[in-house]
Write a structure and sequence with these properties.
Elements: E1 18-26, H1 30-39, H2 46-59, H3 71-78, E2 81-86, E3 90-97, H4 111-114, E4 123-133, E5 139-149, H5 152-192
Length: 193
């Protein structure tokens, strides 16, 4: 078994307060998997919609009208900034926020400032969509998320929030990757015939 390559997040959040990483094998070329991930509407999955609805109710968040759109477009519309991209292979997004608030605002930070960003009162979050070729028609689809607080008070608030919120956030990844895999494999079969 080959060792995992270094994480693209090492350049942005080398030390972190929370980290989640998931991977699935997809029977399709990397560029096709990347396009499927880019276009995938994550709230097309009923259980993902239910998790978002539950969080909003528990936190008493302001209802927000949502337009169905591709994953990366939706993330950017929410305030996530692109930290790095290699089309067909890798997308790295990042933002600062206070996830413990009911109505979370994501604020992008320029890639060159992200690693050193330390304004107090927030956490920095960065995540990836990685499509690693594993043969001509196999891809390892990976997502990794890292969170780092900018000060001790924010760390304590985040960790209190994370104790319960991770029960919804982690399953979103569990549903998202298989959804992308299915879409990529169906599209790949369609285009081969």
């Amino acid at each position: 078994m080959r060792p995992a390559p270094p994480s693209p997040l090492d350049a942005f959040i080398p030390a972190f307060d929370a980290r989640e990483r998931y991977a699935v094998t997809v029977r399709a070329p990397a560029h096709r998997v990347y396009e499927a991930a880019k276009a995938f509407d994550m709230q097309s999955i009923l259980l993902v919609r239910m998790i978002f609805t539950l969080r909003a109710k528990v936190m008493r968040a302001t209802p927000v009208a949502r337009t169905a759109r591709g994953f990366m477009e939706e993330m950017r519309s929410l305030g996530w900034g692109c930290l790095a991209e290699r089309p067909g292979e890798l997308f790295v997004a990042g933002a600062t926020c206070q996830p413990w608030l009911a109505d979370v605002t994501f604020t992008p930070v320029a890639p060159g400032r992200f690693r050193e960003f330390a304004e107090p009162g927030v956490v920095k979050i960065a995540w990836t969509i990685e499509c690693r070729p594993d043969g001509p028609e196999r891809t390892l689809l990976v997502t990794e998320t890292r969170v780092a607080a900018t000060d001790q008070a924010s760390r304590e608030r985040f960790l209190r929030y994370w104790r319960w919120a991770r029960m919804g956030i982690i399953p979103i990844r569990w549903f998202l990757l298989p959804g992308i895999r299915k879409r990529a494999e169906v599209e790949h079969r369609r285009l081969r015939t």
